[in-house]
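Recall the central idea of this unit: under ordinary conditions, the amino acid sequence of a chain determines the structure it adopts. In this exercise we apply that idea directly, starting from the sequence alone.
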Amino acid sequence: MGASVDRVLALDPRNLRALVMKGDSLEQAGDTKAASAYYLAALRSAPPADRLSPDLVQELRRAQQASELFSRRYDDHMRAWFKERGFDESQANSRFGQALDILVAAQARLSAGAAVFLFPQLPQKQFYDRADFRGSMRSRRRGHIRAELQGVLQDAAAFTPYVTG
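Accordingly, the structure predicted from this sequence is:
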C-alpha cells in the first residue's frame, strides 16, 4: 500500500485521502513527526467540510486529533529536554523561552521537509547588505579577522567544522 500511496502523491501531491493514508502509514511505523506533517498538509489542502464526503470529513477530524496529540507530545518532549539541560520554566518569558514557544508552535504548522527556529527580536533576514557592516569591512581589510582565524586553525582542538566530508 505504501508504494501505491507514494505514486498517487507523486501525481497529485494534494490528494487528501493519500495524504491521510501516508500519515497513517508513518504513524504506524513510529514516525509521528513525519505523520503529523502529512496530516497537516491534508488539513491545509482540504476545502470546506460542506464540500467533502462525510467519511473524508471524519478522516480529516481524526488526522487533526492525531496531529494535535503529536504536537502536545513534541511540546512536552522539548520542554523536558531543555529542563534536563538547565532551562528553568521561570525563564519562559526570556527571549530563549519565547524562541522555544515559537519552535514548538511552528513544528505544529510545518509541512514535510521544512525546518525553522525563530529567535525573538532578531531580524529575519536571509542575507545582510555589506553596507550594514562598514566598520567590520575595515577590520577585515586590515587582516584582523583573518589573523584571528589563522590562530584558531593552528589549534586543531579549537575548531572543528560541523560538516565533514
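The longest helix spans residues 54-84.
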